[in-house]
Design a protein that fits this description.
504 residues, alpha+beta, Thrombin, subunit H, Pdz3 Domain, 4 domains, 7-stranded antiparallel sheet, 32% strand, globular
């Protein structure tokens, strides 16, 4: 006898007992109430008792088709478009003959050897990764770090055909690269681009790549999180997090949804020992699409510009301006002549959404802007004086005004062989510093020069030399040539003003 049958018998017996009626000590008849209770129990309890059996029947597969559910149809469609990428780089070094490493020589000559030329040597560095064919004419997406510095790039298709690849361009800020291969007249298997903005936490996804060089591998998982902005992998921090197994060699491979569309490029894992621990990150296809189109059309990446800076809204800020929750970006500065200034965005406004999509923090706003094609109209939802309003702004590329004029400074002064440039909105956007921070920015320093010794580094902005503003790179060169020690430099760095005195 089943559990539900025994339960039904028990409750029917209880109902019959209650149905006979009882009488209390005062002689008050309660038979009617008891019969009503018995009737209710007789109707309800059998249904409750049968519930476990009903739930069990729903959970257990009832047909062979239900047992045979598989991701195979999605894999069959997507896997041929995922390729293996092998890159080779020849590294040339010069080594000292073994004799000169003898302690006796070291004792007399130290690190300087007055004789004996160094011996040139070459070694080959190999790198392994994955890629995705996204157009039938052989356009391939991968990570920049997979092919960085490569002298030769080889692409191996799913059917084991090999091709030499040509590098179209790379984007350091997103760690993306675009390659092409020539497969003749036959169209290549290509993976259609999906919509990463339509993903939800919990959606099923597949990761396809070549981990550890073992060959093409498919792993499954779910979208664990979206818009991960705390992961400092690239300049634009808005990653898809997944628990689908991603390992070394998967970089540049495909993250695919259940419709067989590309929704992300697998780029990194969180690990403590080099292996997968269930935390992987992919670049959303919304970012991939903009970078790819720009590299293919212009050979470089053009990004849109709003022309406003701000900070993430905190709890204290939200309470002070009447927002229900801490979300959005508080505008701190609007640059004159920028797209933001043209539509009337003001200091103190809070940007809550862009084209109806919520903006939770500063990195989220940067991502939304960066995934929008240049010269596109977008709608900003702004909180101002206790109410929300919409502003339509055209996102244009940041201007190259004044021209950068990268210049290597020369002379008997601390900035010898330091590379500087005029700071304009385009360069400021690349370096992630305010375009009004100062006139001249440091691009590179000489590791053996005086600038490196007193701590100058790329991204520093030169405000003055011995109390005089440089104006531009040519002005800075003149000031450094004429100035005599001690040199008093005033620098801007990460919102702070530094004063350095050298010599004298």
């Amino acid at each position: 006898m089943t559990l539900s049958a025994r339960s039904s018998r028990l409750f029917r017996k209880l109902a019959s007992v209650l149905g006979r009626g009882t009488r209390d000590r005062d002689g008050c008849g309660c038979g009617g109430a008891s019969r009503l209770l018995a009737l209710a129990l007789a109707l309800i309890v059998p249904v409750l008792a049968a519930a476990p059996d009903m739930a069990l029947a729903q959970d257990v597969p009832s047909s062979r088709d239900q047992i045979s559910l598989s991701f195979a149809p999605v894999v069959r469609a997507a896997a041929p478009a995922v390729v293996n990428i092998y890159s080779r780089r020849i590294v040339r070094t010069r080594t000292v003959p073994p004799l000169f490493n003898d302690p006796v020589f070291r004792h007399f000559f130290g690190e300087r050897m007055p004789f004996g030329p160094s011996m040139p040597r070459q070694r080959v560095e190999n790198a392994l990764g994955s890629g995705v064919i996204v157009r039938p004419d052989g356009v391939i997406l991968t990570n920049r770090h997979v092919i960085e510095g490569a002298d030769e790039i080889t692409v191996v298709l799913h059917d084991r055909r090999e091709f030499d690849a040509r590098l179209v361009g790379t984007d350091e800020r997103t760690d993306l690269a675009v390659l092409t291969i020539d497969a003749g007249r036959d169209p290549m298997p290509a993976l259609p681009l999906g919509e990463s903005d339509s993903l939800e936490v919990g959606d099923l996804v597949l990761a396809i790549g070549n981990p550890f060089g073992v060959g093409q591998t498919v792993t499954s998982g779910i979208v664990s999180a979206l818009a991960r902005t705390s992961v400092g992998l690239t300049d634009y921090r808005s990653f898809i997090q997944t628990d689908a197994a991603i390992n070394p060699g998967n970089s540049g491979g495909a993250l695919v949804d259940m419709a067989g569309r590309l929704v992300g490029i697998n780029t990194a894992i969180y690990t403590q020992d080099g292996g997968n621990v269930g935390i992987g990150f992919a670049i959303p296809v919304a970012m991939v699409r903009v970078v790819m189109d720009s590299l293919l059309e212009e050979g470089r990446v053009r990004r849109p510009w709003l022309g406003a800076t701000g900070q993430t809204v905190t709890n204290d800020i939200a309470r002070s301006i009447g927002l229900e929750r801490p979300s959005g970006v508080l505008v701190a500065e609007v640059l004159e002549g920028s797209p933001a200034a043209r539509v009337g965005l003001r200091r103190g406004d809070v940007i809550l959404a862009m084209d109806g999509r919520p903006v939770t923090d500063e990195e989220g706003l940067r991502y939304r802007i960066a995934t929008t094609p240049v010269n596109t109209d977008v709608t900003l939802t702004v909180w101002r004086r206790g109410g929300a309003r919409d502003l339509t702004v055209t996102l244009r590329p940041p201007p190259e005004d004044p021209p950068r004029e990268p210049t290597v400074l020369r002379g008997r002064h601390p900035l010898d062989r330091v590379t500087v440039a005029n700071l304009n909105p385009a360069l400021a956007e690349e370096l992630r510093i305010p375009s009004d921070a100062g006139p001249v920015v440091v691009l590179r320093t000489n590791p053996r020069g005086g600038a490196a010794r007193f701590g100058m580094r790329p991204g520093d902005v030169v405000l003055s030399v011995n109390g005089r503003e440089p104006g531009d790179v040519r002005g800075l060169a003149r000031l450094m040539e004429r100035a005599r020690p001690p040199w008093r430099l005033e620098l801007w760095r990460e919102g702070r003003t530094l004063r350095v005195v050298i010599g004298g």
